[in-house]
Specification:
heterodimer; A: about 270 residues; mainly alpha; Fusion Protein Consisting Of Minor Coat Protein, Glycine Rich Linker, Tola, And A His Tag, Chain: A, Domain 2; 2 domains; 14 helices; 3 strands; about 5% strand; elongated; B: about 450 residues; mainly beta; Neuraminidase; four-stranded antiparallel beta sheet
């Protein structure tokens, strides 16, 4: 009797293990979901006034040009996982949508990586994290379920459109850097970054006065340098008013903006 | 349970993205001097005879001060659109923005009791459309120049966050005559060269004058019977006294930040060391005991540290020690010969003279010796002295004598740390060994 129970139990356990390992429904296929990278091909000089390239960048550029024969094209763009921003995660990008090195070579855009076209540290939306989360979610749900529920709710078009394109960002940045007279005399430390929130009308003009997010710090007697820096940032915003606005059909995406004025490179 | 956790994480992600804000980093900016409009101060018609000239001069001195520092550009008065006195109450900001002024200085002069001058000044932010500083000063009419410097200081302080340095004076050694028979007189002037006067007649050789940071008093070195001695001179009363009677020669005296002590080097038996003297008790304490030459001591602004130079390592280098002589360590390491270290009033930097590859440079380094920056190089220049806000240095520069024994000159210069804006300070005669005062009280 006892022997039968033990044998039966072992067989049952063995069967369950076999089922888990053998049936595809329990197997984690570890689907490789490519990170979403936003890329736009354009002539930067026509669109923006990118700051003067530093000596180091120039040197890097020269080295890069020397290596051009071997490398042929910039590394970040060569990654085969690049998709256009309007692609959805659940519909893998078709082959022809991937920006091929040859296409870029033809357009002779050698210096694209001056601005990294990949993920930005400070963005609230982190594509890699989402990809990771989706992977994790798959551990607990069948693939079909994941496709139906999670993927749909993580519609990449919707999330990506919260951002401006690189050219739009550059165009805005270049306007503010021209307007910003940096107070060069101030004593710099790492906390000297001023964040200014602005709300814009459709024509690019200020809807309401710009606001320093850490305005309480401005009023502290010990923070006179921060106050001077914050005031210079506010002056820059007002001096640039109205800015040349991005496309009106995406107004709800750029209506509210946060500008981080960071004088690190200028004052160190 | 895990599913619930993931769902919570995903929900939080959505909350975050719902409030996602476009964020743009601006890490470059305009390095050009800030355009400032400095208007002539208004006055009542009845005071026009006395105040016409003062009004014009006052705004010119303010403009010159602000331009000299390199951080501001005064806009040409001919470009001004609004010219009526109403601007002092409420400027038409759009008019000032049109000529690219980011700050506006307006003012009003009035003669009050006993011909006293009442100066009212306002600083406006033309883009924020608000007054950001205002001041009323009452003084005698002949004091208009100091008032101008004080206004310039206020503008500088409000727009840079740093204390100003225009209401200050420079002490220096005026030099004249052939190089082998040089006459050296102690002299003083405003930082812009105005109100120049000689303090000594030139009979005795004078060297290394230094201001007391808290009093109208100076210390300097003068020769008596061919021996250099340290003197104290009150520049208001003219009283002069010898600081102690030492057996050897004394050099490079300098006050402590609280003005209570003088630190100097004293040479005995061919060895020079650092000593400090308590002025009240005249008690002298020896701080270094090295067999090498230790000289040019200078206190940190908190009085806790001292920088000096020494050739104990073979060549002359910069060292730092505690105020009691302990923890002596070398900080200069970039090669070359270093001299005349001076601690910045802001505490963050040490200025020095450096002899390297046949030329002399004025430079600064951080107090741990890192981040050395050479600001200016020339055939011969030395003796940097800080402005009270620690942003500008004054020093002197010499030109070589040619084969005919001519061409030698010694002139005073200033350079600011931000824009490397180098300017010559005009003096009636040649000048050397400048020392910058604190803001006048």
């Amino acid at each position: 009797m006892q022997f039968s129970i033990i044998t039966s139990s072992l067989l049952h356990v063995g069967f369950i293990i076999f089922t888990i390992l053998g049936l595809p429904i329990f197997n984690n296929p570890n689907v490789d979901i490519p990170p979403i990278i936003q890329v736009e091909i354009l002539e930067i000089t026509e669109q923006t006034n990118v700051p003067e390239i530093s000596k180091r960048e120039v040197e890097e550029k020269k080295i890069e040009e020397k290596k051009k024969d071997n490398v042929k094209i910039n590394q970040p763009i060569m990654k085969p996982k690049i998709e256009k921003s309007d692609e959805k995660v659940k519909d893998p990008a078709p082959e022809e949508e991937i920006i091929k090195p040859e296409t870029i070579a033809e357009k002779n855009i050698v210096n694209m990586p001056i601005r990294k076209p990949v993920l930005k540290k400070k963005d609230n939306f982190d594509e890699l994290k989402i990809a990771e989360l989706i992977d994790m979610a798959q551990d607990t749900k069948p693939i079909e379920d994941a496709k139906d529920e999670e993927y749909e709710s993580l519609d990449s078009t919707e999330t990506l459109s919260d951002k401006l394109t690189l050219s739009e960002e550059d165009a805005i940045r270049s306007q503010f850097l021209r307007c910003w007279s940096v107070p060069l005399g101030i004593k710099y430390d790492d906390s000297m970054v001023v964040k200014v929130k602005i709300t814009l009308k459709q024509d690019g003009s200020l809807m309401k006065p710009p606001e320093v997010t850490d305005h309480q710090r401005m009023n502290k007697p010990s923070e006179k340098y921060f106050k001077v820096l914050a005031e210079s940032a506010l002056r820059a915003v007002r001096r640039c008013d109205p800015i040349k606005a991005p496309a009106a059909d995406r107004y709800d995406k750029w209506k509210d903006m946060q500008l981080s004025f960071d004088p690190r490179e200028l004052l160190r | 349970m895990r599913i619930v956790k993931y769902l919570i994480v995903i929900s939080l992600l959505f909350i975050n993205s719902a409030f996602a804000l476009i964020e743009i980093d601006i890490t470059e900016g305009n390095r050009e001097p800030l355009p400032v409009a400095i208007t002539s101060f208004f006055y009542d018609e009845v005071d026009s005879i006395k105040l016409n000239e003062i009004s014009k001069n006052l705004s010119e001195v303010v403009s010159a001060d602000l331009e000299r520092c390199g951080l501001f550009a005064a806009i040409d008065k001919d470009a001004f659109i609004q010219k009526n006195p109403a601007m002092h109450l409420r400027p038409r900001f759009e008019d000032w923005r049109l000529i690219k002024a980011q700050a506006l200085v307006t003012g009003r002069l009035k003669l009050v009791d006993d011909d006293k001058l009442r100066v009212e000044f306002r600083l406006w932010d033309t883009l924020a459309e608000k007054e950001i500083e205002a001041l009323v000063l009452i003084t005698t009419t002949d004091n208009w120049r100091r008032i101008s410097h004080m206004i310039a200081d206020k503008v500088y302080e409000r727009l840079t966050g740093e204390g100003g340095y225009f209401d200050t004076r420079i002490l220096y050694v005026a030099e004249s005559g052939p190089k082998n028979k040089r006459i050296k007189k102690l002299s003083i002037m405003d930082q812009d060269g105005a109100n120049h006067r000689f303090l000594t007649s030139g009979k005795e050789l004078v060297l290394t004058p230094r201001f007391n940071p808290v009093k109208q008093e100076i210390t300097y070195l003068s020769y008596f019977k061919n021996l250099p001695r340290v003197y104290l001179l009150n520049i208001e009363t003219g009283n002069q006294e010898v600081v102690g009677d030492f057996p050897g020669m004394t050099f490079a005296p300098r006050f402590s930040p609280d003005g209570s002590k003088i630190i100097m080097s004293l040479a005995k038996d061919g060895n020079s060391d650092i000593y400090v003297m308590e002025l009240k008790s005249r008690v002298v304490t020896r701080l270094t005991t090295n067999s090498a030459i230790d000289t040019s001591p200078s206190y940190s602004p908190d009085g806790k540290k001292i920088t000096f130079n020494s050739d104990r390592g073979g060549s002359q280098q910069i060292y730092v020690m505690d105020n009691d002589g302990r923890n002596q360590k070398r900080i200069s390491s970039e090669g070359g010969i270093y001299a005349t270290p001076v601690w910045s009033p802001r505490g963050d930097l040490i200025a020095f003279t450096k002899n390297f590859k046949g030329s002399y440079a004025i430079g600064v380094m951080r107090i741990n010796g890192e981040g050395e920056r050479l600001l200016t190089e020339n055939w011969y220049q030395e003796a940097p002295s800080w402005s009270p806000n620690g942003r500008v240095l004054t020093f002197y520069r010499e030109t070589p004598t040619n084969e005919a024994g001519q061409g030698h000159s010694s002139t005073l210069w200033s350079i600011d740390l931000t824009c490397f804006n180098e300017r010559k300070i005009d003096t009636p005669e040649d000048g050397s060994d400048p020392s910058w005062s604190n803001l006048m009280q």
